Amino acid sequence: MNFLKAGLLVLFSLSALQVKAQSDTANTKSYADQVMIRVNLDTNIESYVFSEGDGKNVNETILSINNKTKTSFSIDYRIISATISFAPRFLDGNNDEELKGKSSYTDLSFRFFPGRFIQNVYYKNVKGFYVENMKDLSPEWQEGRDPYIKFPDLRVQTFGGSTSYVLNKNFSARSIYTQGEWQYKSCGSWVPFLDYDLTVFRNTIDGVKSKETQYNIGGNIGYFYNWVIGKNVNISPYLALGIGGKFSSYRDFQNGGSKENAQYATIRMQGGLHIGYNTDRFLFGGKMNFKTYAYDQKNNQTVENNNLYGLLYIGYRFAPPKVVKNTYDKIQKKIPVL
After folding, report:
1. Which residue in 104, 99, 105, 102 sits closest to 134, CA to CA?
2. % residues pLDDT > 70 (the chain)
3. Could you give the CA distance from residue 55 to residue 6 in angstroms, rounded to a whole number?
């Protein structure tokens, strides 16, 4: 849990900026009346770390997906932001299936900005894992000569979301999340949020099927800061810490479908850095984000889920076609929150 100590130190260091942030006035320019499209290219590293033992006698097994580069397309209009992601096989790092097996990755997400709330919902489907740290498990193992241990039928499906609230009314979360606004003056805010998901693990080994269903919920507090440099550049770091619970149900179909239930306390941390360049029409930039959570099982076993990625994006804004504007206006009359 060393990452928690480091996270607390950085989080309280960032909180020192809040004094200035509260005195700032966040003059923002909104692009809500424009359609914005973005193309994103990111390195997606999804892994599960299983640790057993304590002290110096800790053995780790790292399961990762083979796809390392992901492409996504985003479209934003009014308070809605939608993104679809996939991992093309033709990109370098996604096509070494002979060594590490075949992996697939699909991600669909929607983000809404009603007032100072931020609501995110998403679906993620990942299939095909391999043991990344073969050298740690077998010192004689050699890259390119010996095969990786593969779990081609291990599939992880996640349905999740998060609900956030921006405490500082002068802070523009959209300028960081989706570049749907531009903030003229540097400003920061504490952002408490609740995240939740339903994750289903399915696997087949030697013809034997297994299934585990996990329910996760956590409360978090994060600090976001948007440092504006000149007229077109912003640098935005953030860090969030949280605690929560995991409720697991495991079923092994070999033993008559017997079910085992378990509950765990979880600890999580996430953070990142965004650097962007913005004009009224064109925008581009990059992000580096990480997300990790861990929980302790019995017999000195610890499980961590780590997600680390860097992202490059380029986007363009334009006036909405009449059919888009008229359709949205009709929907808004029925759903005022939009």
Report:
1. 99
2. 80
3. 20
